Amino acid sequence: xxxxxxxxxxxxxxxxxxxxxxxxxxxxxxxxxxxxxxxxxxxxxxxxxxxxxxxxxxxxxxxxxxxxxxxxxxxxxxxxxxxxxxxxxxxxxxxxxxxxxxxxxxxxxxxxxxxxxxxxxxxxxxxxxxxxxxxxxxxxxxxxxxxxxxxxxxxxxxxxxxxxxxxxxxxxxxxxxxxxxxxxxx
Length: 186
Hints:
alpha+beta, 5 helices, 5 strands, 47% helix, 186 residues, Beta Polymerase, domain 2, 5-stranded mixed β-sheet
């Protein structure tokens, strides 16, 4: 993971890296190998999945599973260790959050939801909306830079500062998606 990784608790924003999709694909292959049929679907999400936007150099991965309890039990018995750790405190990042760390840096966050969970779908809709709306992507980028300048050593404050914007844009994205479906578009 050449361009991925950040010391825990810190915020560093980097320009979009062309190898983010490749890094994600490698992580995806590894997770599919580990979890096999426990993964119903897997997506690259978060800012590293949005072209031309600054992001923390951490790959966010969303997994939908058909049985979250089985997924948790399997992870804690077979996966959790030096590289993959389960985030124990409550999180907005899914029903279950796994952190991948190597060389003292967080490389990936793996957000796990039950298949069809509305919260997981919201993350995907937000990503898709920003990837298809350049002006909104620019606004989000400005917000991220502003928050970064005031919260470089406080990742929680940085993340909380984005929540209202993300919620607002996600609602707009769902409405747009609904309108397109009503017109028979994809």
